[in-house]
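Incident log, structure service

09:12 report received: a user says their structure output differs between two submissions of the same chain.
09:20 pulled the input from the user's history:
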Amino acid sequence: MYKAYWAAGAASLAVLAGAAYAAAPAKAPAPIANYWMDVATTSGFGAGMGGGGRPSMGAIMGMMRGGSSVMHSLELRLASKQKAAGTPDAQHFVPPSLQMGPTLPLVTPVIERTAGTPHTETPGTYEKPKGRMLIYWGCGEHVSAGQPTVIDFAKLASGQIPKEYQSLARMGAMMGRSATPPQVGQSAGYGEWPNKRDSRPVPAAGSLLGAHRIEGNYSPPISFTVGAGQDFMPALGLREAGALPSGAQTLSWQAAPQATGYALSMFGSGQNGDVIIWTSAKGAAMSPNFDYLSPAEVKRQVTAGAVLAPSVTQCVLPAEVATASPTGMVMGIGYGPEVFFAEAPKAPKWSTRLRYKSTATLMRGMGAMMGGDEGGNPRGQAPGQPAKKKRRGLGGLGGVLGNLPIP
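09:34 re-ran on a clean worker, output below:
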């Protein structure tokens, strides 16, 4: 009989006082098989592009304005100490509520080894890097003193390492650390989904609730039940909630009951080709990690100021950032819980780990760029009148995201 439990905080330590010496207990053997399920919800710009289907231009415009397009996705990985006697074969039997048929095949990727080809360099003209990167941080109507951090690419290429670059280099250390799931080649038996055999998109109305079973010829049978509160996280609904007289922009989102914290970042372009970066963190060296993070790590990041608390549902993009980059791509994440299942409380033959997150992307200023009102009509044009031809592409965002041509 399996046991489910939430990893919602740091593990408690049992301290034995007054004992002069105690022999360390024998270490329990590791599980034969480990199964990971990464459970993601994606909304906003780009959410409708999964599964290989090409979205319509109307859907793209809706997503740019913070539309309600939502996509669910799964990444399944089975790793085992046992090796298959023949061809590896494993299946994940899913509940009917997922609407994907009875099973998802866990395929073992073929590692292709190719002979290396000699590398030849073609002489060319070196072009010195140009432009700057301007880094802002923090929620609030105005930025704090000392902003932005400016990275000059030309000076960097010539060997001049500015002190501001040290803050950028420290970002990696401050980002939350994400656990590494099993990978092909690391264990005797391995299977994953999606794969070349089956890469279907998860239906938007699909649900994980119900009984799950994993069977394969290189692992013990695994079974667990996903219950209430352990389904896909809801969409964040990230949107622009109104501008302040100073030019600052309020960004808001819907609270997710399972969320352990939130983080935002924005990428845009400014004058003279400047790259504009902003994050919701309280410090320049606190760039948030947009991957799965454990609840304990998120709690640490909230305390440090790198992640917003789970009770927060809005953040003001400072006026200086909004002015420097009138348009830009805002990304948001709601970090989710982790759920663990095991075959037994002690020395289990298998263990299962579910990780959750909900991400969203918003294109700032697209409504103004398209010249449309809330009803979708160009400004100054009455409903029913033929639309005037407009420039194709994304205007000033081309330098950051490239043009998105209308088919």
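09:41 both user submissions now match this output. Likely a transient worker issue. Closing.
09:42 reviewer note: Residues 108 and 196 are 10 Å apart (CA to CA). Residues 3-8+30-110+166-370 form one domain.
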